[in-house]
């Protein structure tokens, strides 16, 4: 899902300037969503919303974006030099990031519902088998 929404789909669309989304920008979008996923999952597993955990999560994401900006603007011999505008302006990549982040909450609920339904079905099947014996 991450690869399709944040890399393949943006690479198939055109940017506002008419160019296509390149490999390095797509790879950094995938890495960006992995950072967000890791932080949100750790936050959900800790189950403590004291403000400190959210602050550390936001700082972690902001440090990645800040370091990416510095690398793309000032490191002239880097492979990602000068791709900041491309990374920021691809609306399909940002749509993919939003969909991936929202899937953390929707997919958890869907899988919990499926687990509950399967458990009820299995319990009902086991209950009917024991009454016929």
Shape, please? Answer: elongated
Proportion in helices = over 70%
Category by helix and strand content: mainly alpha
Number of helices: 5
How many beta-strand elements?
A: 0
Which regions are unreliable across 5 or more consecutive residues at pLDDT < 50?
A: none
Biggest sheet, in brief?
none
In terms of DSSP E residues, the strand content is under 5%
Alpha carbon gyration radius: 21 Å
H and E order: HHHHH
| Total tally of structural domains | 1
* Average pLDDT: 82
| Distance, first to last CA | 47 Å
Provide keyphrases for this structure.
133 residues, mainly alpha, 5 helices
Describe the protein's architecture and organization.
The chain has 133 residues and is mainly α. The chain has one domain. Helices cover 79% and strands 0% of the residues. The chain is built from five helices and no strands. It has helices at 2-12, 23-46, 52-74, 84-89, 91-131. Helix 1 runs antiparallel to helix 5 (91-131) and helix 2 runs antiparallel to helix 3 (52-74). The longest helix is centred in the C-terminal third of the chain and has 41 residues, at 91-131. 14% of the residues are buried. The mean pLDDT is 82.
